[in-house]
Amino acid sequence: MKALIGRKIGMTQIFDDEGHVVPVTAIEVGPCTITQIKTEEQDGYTAVQLGFGEVKESKLTKPAKGKFAKANVTPKKHLKEFRVDSVEGMNVGDELKADTFAAGDKVDVQGTSKGKGFQGVIKRWGQHRGPMGHGSMYHRRPGSMGPTSTPGRVFPGKHLPGHMGDVTVTVQNLEVVKVDLDKNVILVKGSVPGAKGSILKVKSSVKTKKEV
Asked: How far apart are alpha carbons 82 and 48 in whole angstroms?
């Protein structure tokens, strides 16, 4: 399992060897520091915790200060945990950079989608509107709520207006097109969740598509 914490820089496009335009997302991955290692014997499962981004010690709570002091690493702003099959060869304090990935790797990218506030059923669920003539009296409403007296309630799962976006989204099987070791940046084909500057989890794909 290859995994890193990254920051979304934005989208651009590059040309491949055949001259085709490839839309890519630039992600700054690392340097990430291993801040904790969890083992089957001690914690019941195997995982590593990575830290990304610098933060002033004055902004940390006492428990957080103690955690970083115990690990003997500089304080990190973002902490993420990744399940791994084995922690052999890994040590607290080790630094992971963009060379963890290589061009051609398939990755899953997880982030928080852009928040869109309170939205109606047309934008939120893609429903059709009613006739726009003044006499129709029905334009952008959610539609029938279901039976009246029996059972006298709205069934769960009914598509209604509400908060849209700002949820955890994972995009699977994205291809790493290029790795820039000097800037610690990888270029991933396609789009990833979140706004520019948002924090992402980038790890090896768990459902690699079979080549046709």
From this structure: 5
Number of domains in the chain: 2
Residues in the chain, total: 212
Task: Please indicate, yes or no, if residue 40 is contained in any of the structural domains.
Answer: yes
Kindly state whether residues 58 and 83 are assigned to the same domain.
yes
Burial of 10 (0-12, 13-18, 19+ CB in 10 A): exposed
Q: Which domain holds residue 157?
A: 116-164
**Is residue 11 pLDDT above 90, yes or no?**
yes
**99 within domain boundaries:** yes
Please check whether residue 55 lies inside any domain of the structure: yes
Report percent pLDDT > 90 for the chain.
65
Instruction: Find the helix or strand (DSSP H, E) in which 170 lies.
Output: strand 168-180
- 65, 32: one domain: yes
Please indicate, yes or no, whether residues 68 and 173 belong to a single structural domain of this protein: yes
Q: pTM of the full predicted structure?
A: 0.84
Which region, left, alpha or beta, applies to residue 91 given φ > 0 means left and ψ of -120 to 50 means alpha? beta
User: What does the pLDDT read at residue 178?
Assistant: 93
On whether both 46 and 142 belong to a single domain, the answer is no
Q: Are 204 and 10 in contact (CB under 8 A)?
A: no
3-15 and 117-119 strand pairing: unpaired
Distance CA 150, CA 136 (A): 28
Residue 210 pLDDT level (bands cut at 50, 70, 90): low
- In the predicted model, is pLDDT for residue 167 greater than 70? yes
